[in-house]
Amino acid sequence: xxxxxxxxxxxxxxxxxxxxxxxxxxxxxxxxxxxxxxxxxxxxxxxxxxxxxxxxxxxxxxxxxxxxxxxxxxxxxxxxxxxxxxxxxxxxxxxxxxxxxxxxxxxxxxxxxxxxxxxxxxxxxxxxxxx
Length: 131
Known about the structure:
Blueprint: H1 4-15, H2 22-33, H3 40-47, H4 51-63, E1 67-72, E2 75-83, H5 85-109, H6 111-129
Antiparallel strand pairs: 1-2
Helix pairs in contact: 2-5, 3-4, 5-6
């Protein structure tokens, strides 16, 4: 059985600008909202990913010019990641592409039902993030 999550991800992925994956958008969106630099390990924890999976995604984002990855000046074994101006622009373009889809879904469901679901979804996220 296909889940709501799978359907939503497929629909949003199709709307994203060419070459952008949903995982790229999620990381860029996070970096826009949290402007300070992060280590790959911090990002892996935030997104519940292995360091290898995150490194692969960061490499793709870096090749696209969407993030800057630099050595940590205090510990050369570590790296620091920041969003680039091009990455912020790519995130904005992606958001513009998926916003109508999200707005249509919210409108069809009804604003009251969406507002009622938000606390439940936040609680689910909080409980799952504790693991």
